């Protein structure tokens, strides 16, 4: 179904950084962070009316189920980790649009709830996506802290295949995608360095123990990546050299206790600013 | 709820690369790919019985709703992209566990369906995760092709904030996390190079147009990343330099038409093999 804007009486531009305010009853006004739009040509109440109308049209276009619900999945905008899944209804989605805090409808308590209202671990929503059927929604956002009520980073830490492998399951394992799974493995290797070991240490451990070796490998792999362009090598060589750069760089990040997520946050913040603004805001290099 | 293994009569180890076969009626036997486990101490039928029993216990532990359903989210194991969301029931989950192809229950057709059974764009499941409430499931897998029936890579390509910003929405925009959003922006800059432009080109365009500049920047940024370790600079400097390495490296990947996803696939394949096996399988360097 295509959203129609017949209700809209004039073009409207909303900065992605501006919090929408409309008289939906549940708009949480955070005077520090949110600001209502003011246009030279329209009064605040006109603008609110237009926005409210656009939001209503949008809410009408969602294919709510027989209970008035749709699935809402909260996803970390930087890492892609699925944080949690709940259900949303018309009011919960309207609240999320206006407050930019992931808000759900609790089926057990028959009430709206904003993730973080008790724990303060809000999920700050940067964008919201509907699927092709308009009955499933992604809240793409940045969590203030662990999402799960257990204190886990995400609610998905029970692997079915782990359970089928072992009679006794040793601890939990988050649902991690490739980069974060590699990061987690390298962190484990770092933690194991304290324990005495027989035999030759793995390559990762050797890198973790020898800054000179690690840095020479990072410089070498970056050079090899460049040579795939300079010497017109094939695509598979480029992918392979970039994998080498990433792996060795993550070993360095692990040594420095920097998470890949922190790096992605830096990238996101840079690319949401103009180049000039961004350069000005950087700390001077030594 | 904790999974109990009281039904299991002996310890059982299943390699993550081994496809489980059990007599669930819906086990799709792919003789090329799947292999049933054979243990010296147990006959094939014993093993099948044990596995079947473990799977049944696991299926019992899922908190199915009043219609016998749970939410199932398919996620790309390399990029973290949420591919689609459907519902699963006991049979659909059992089929996914045994076939390793993401399988759902269609509420409209009241039948099981394996994503890809018509299009051949299967989602090859590497792991399955339950959430803390055991009523939401991630199928973490690798898609064979676009997941959406529209031909889109994922089903989530309608941004609510885009719709609220503009009266006319220009095309669709996938729900991309930071790295892929950056990659997409750089790809756009590359596509824009063909069009004549007034004024000074952006930094990204200058890099795209000048291999020497790009390669000197990649080498320089890799060196600066290393120096944050060698000169014991603070964590924020490491994150910032790594962001520089990533950004410049993605410009190079874009020039070579290599997707970040391909790099992550290389990393995943390396880390699922032992170091020695992996090194042997690499193409020799020039």
Automatic annotation (TrEMBL), chains A, B:
<dbReference type="InterPro" id="IPR038019">
    <property type="entry name" value="PRib_AMP_CycHydrolase_sf"/>
</dbReference>
<dbReference type="InterPro" id="IPR002496">
    <property type="entry name" value="PRib_AMP_CycHydrolase_dom"/>
</dbReference>
<dbReference type="InterPro" id="IPR008179">
    <property type="entry name" value="HisE"/>
</dbReference>
<dbReference type="InterPro" id="IPR021130">
    <property type="entry name" value="PRib-ATP_PPHydrolase-like"/>
</dbReference>
<keyword id="KW-0067">ATP-binding</keyword>
<keyword id="KW-0378">Hydrolase</keyword>
<comment type="pathway">
    <text>Amino-acid biosynthesis; L-histidine biosynthesis; L-histidine from 5-phospho-alpha-D-ribose 1-diphosphate: step 3/9.</text>
</comment>
<dbReference type="Pfam" id="PF01502">
    <property type="entry name" value="PRA-CH"/>
</dbReference>
<comment type="pathway">
    <text>Amino-acid biosynthesis; L-histidine biosynthesis; L-histidine from 5-phospho-alpha-D-ribose 1-diphosphate: step 2/9.</text>
</comment>
<keyword id="KW-0368">Histidine biosynthesis</keyword>
<keyword id="KW-0028">Amino-acid biosynthesis</keyword>
<feature type="domain" description="Phosphoribosyl-AMP cyclohydrolase">
    <location>
        <begin position="84"/>
        <end position="157"/>
    </location>
</feature>
<keyword id="KW-0511">Multifunctional enzyme</keyword>
<protein>
    <recommendedName>
        <fullName>Phosphoribosyl-AMP cyclohydrolase domain-containing protein</fullName>
    </recommendedName>
</protein>
<keyword id="KW-0547">Nucleotide-binding</keyword>
<dbReference type="Pfam" id="PF01503">
    <property type="entry name" value="PRA-PH"/>
</dbReference>
């Amino acid at each position: 179904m295509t959203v129609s804007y017949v209700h809209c009486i004039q073009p409207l531009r909303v900065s992605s950084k501006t919090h929408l305010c409309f008289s939906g009853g549940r708009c949480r006004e955070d005077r520090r962070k949110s600001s209502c739009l003011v246009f030279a040509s329209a009064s605040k109440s006109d603008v609110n009316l237009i926005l409210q109308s656009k939001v209503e049209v949008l809410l009408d276009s969602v294919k709510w189920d027989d209970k008035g619900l749709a699935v809402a999945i909260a996803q970390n905008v930087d890492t892609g980790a699925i944080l949690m899944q709940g259900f949303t209804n018309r009011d919960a989605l309207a609240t999320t649009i206006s407050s930019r805090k992931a808000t759900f409808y609790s089926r057990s308590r028959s009430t709206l709830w904003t993730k973080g209202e008790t724990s303060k671990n809000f999920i700050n929503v940067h964008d919201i996506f509907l699927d092709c059927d308009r009955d499933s929604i992604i809240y793409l956002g940045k969590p203030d802290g662990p999402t799960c009520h257990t204190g886990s980073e995400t609610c998905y830490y029970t692997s079915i295949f782990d359970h089928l492998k072992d009679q006794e399951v040793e601890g939990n394992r988050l649902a991690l995608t490739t980069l974060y799974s590699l990061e987690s493995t390298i962190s484990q290797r770092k933690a194991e360095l304290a324990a005495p070991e027989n035999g030759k240490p793995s390559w990762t451990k050797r890198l973790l123990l020898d800054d000179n070796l690690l840095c020479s490998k990072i410089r070498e792999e970056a050079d090899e990546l460049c040579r795939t362009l300079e010497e017109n090598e094939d695509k598979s060589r480029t992918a392979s050299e970039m994998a080498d750069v990433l792996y060795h760089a993550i070993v360095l990040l692990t040594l420095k206790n920097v998470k890949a997520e922190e790096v992605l946050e830096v990238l996101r913040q840079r690319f949401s600013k103009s180049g000039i603004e961004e350069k000005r805001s950087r700390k001077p290099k030594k």
